[in-house]
Amino acid sequence: MSVLVVGSMAYDSVETPTAKIDKALGGSATFFSAAASYFAPVNLVAVVGEDFDFNDIEFLKNKNVDLSGLTTEPGKTFFWAGRYLANMNDRETLDTQLNVFEHFNPVLPEKFRDSEYVFLANINPDLQYNVIQQVNKPKFVAMDTMNFWITGYLQDLKKTLSVVDALVINDSEVKLLSGQDNIFKGARIIQDMGPKTLIIKKGEHGAILIHKDSLFSCPAIPVENLFDPTGAGDTFAGGFMGYLAMTGDINENNLRRAILMGTIMASFSVEDFSVDRIKDLPKTEIRQRIKTLLDLIRVKEDNNWIKL
Amino acid sequence: MSVLVVGSMAYDSVETPTAKIDKALGGSATFFSAAASYFAPVNLVAVVGEDFDFNDIEFLKNKNVDLSGLTTEPGKTFFWAGRYLANMNDRETLDTQLNVFEHFNPVLPEKFRDSEYVFLANINPDLQYNVIQQVNKPKFVAMDTMNFWITGYLQDLKKTLSVVDALVINDSEVKLLSGQDNIFKGARIIQDMGPKTLIIKKGEHGAILIHKDSLFSCPAIPVENLFDPTGAGDTFAGGFMGYLAMTGDINENNLRRAILMGTIMASFSVEDFSVDRIKDLPKTEIRQRIKTLLDLIRVKEDNNWIKL
Questions:
Q1: Which partner from A57, A118, A187, B162 sits 20 to 30 angstroms from B272, CA to CA?
Q2: Domains of chain B, CATH where assigned
Q3: pLDDT of B47-95, one tens digit each?
Q4: A212 at the B interface (CB within 8 A)?
Q5: Closest CB from A215, A299, A305 relative to B222
Q6: Closest Cα in chain A, distance from residue B179 (Å)
């Protein structure tokens, strides 16, 4: 089954303590679809400006990504510039130019309306809501958001939350949205707003899946050479949703497997700038990293191991 | 098999955002032995002052802890006072009075010298080294340390590290000791100093076991009512070492199981002040929490789940 993503396509200028790149391909829809396309066909909806170089996304066409929903508007492409601090966790935004993204009003091509798996990347919650209305019979709708929408557009956000299955969010956003310091208490408050499935991203500390009453904790794959964290969250979401769409199974255990797949894709993404590491990954490398992650979490049990 | 612990016995005054306790039983050897005693007999070596109330540790006697190595010296018992900030991760020390602990010079009772499992809690590395010399044929020696010894007593610390099997350490101490911001790179540098097994504690984010070339990542058990984190690390070490001593198996997979047991014991410890939660735990509660932790990390695999 295919997966629909609605989000941004952008150019990023990124500085890390060791390197710097100007005008690299970025945007939530870009990272998401690059990752998801290893698992399922992707229907992409985004907007770019007249300056956009379509050669930059030639690789998406070759990867099962349908770009019929990518429109070009007068003006420039969304631009973001940021700098990561020495710990690579904190970053400062140096520049944000919304450009054509400011008036992004996603309209789904007719053939996208039957998408069963839907990912609403981090855009205005009102637009996210409108997208859901355009999908005929979604099977699983997940959304992202950020502090900007939580603090300034809470009513719109709550309306959208009330109609989605899953929220992908980081730990500090859980606290902000729920008003709770404890993320597990906070999660229950957010579940009451709508989504029964929460995917809480904790960066180098991994991710937590809360599905109804069950909890799953997945570590991040150790990265010795963290190069550029930009896009890791959207890449994670791409692996997660792509795997669900591939398997067509949204039961508890398969959601856990999907979390593993998101973790794996994100671990590649941070090893290079932009989508450079995930644009052309051999499947053997993905399989190898699945093995690495399973080794990282596996405990062999037998009936006698606890003799208490 | 029994496990030997050499460390502190103390009185703590602790303030959290919601509660406060004066002169509560504390100390690394106390938390460690309370936890380890569920799994194996414990030989405890520590020192207290004349003010110490032995009624406070009556429960240890009933729990298979041999107190022959606990001496009373003229003066007062080690005292620590601290306050946890709102996030419960950061704390400030309000007072430290080493008292009799300042001249602690651990001498093992003859019958403790055959201990096979040895835990050197956070004391002067030179004393830790001297303890190891007093054990006849240790099978597995683990040690703790802290920033104070890393920055001020590095040569002594390196000498001790060169003769132990395992180091229990937190993530910031890994960075300090190795000079590396990346804990996985740092871990290899520390392994070159001696211990082939590292247990890296990350608080609410769980723990990482690095054993030779293998990695295991274990999440913390979600705690909705974090009451007092004091002693969680020593409780963790007690569960870990106690389980190893109970099973007499230091192979890779059993080290992983021992990490689970440390995680479980620590999750109880933080639910109340002092050792109140772990001094008299029914084994059914421990078994229940083992199940909780296994559910938290379990992913069912089958041969077809990755169809890439």
A1: A187
A2: 3-297 (3.40.1190.20)
A3: 999 999 999 999 999 999 999 999 999 999 999 999 998 878 789 999 9
A4: no
A5: A215
A6: 13
Distances (CA, A) of A207 to A221, A227, B32, B285: 11, 20, 30, 27
pLDDT digits (tens, 9 = 90+) for B193-235: 999 999 999 999 999 999 999 999 999 999 888 899 999 999 9
Global pTM? 0.94
Chain A residues with CB-CB distance to B175 below 8 A: none
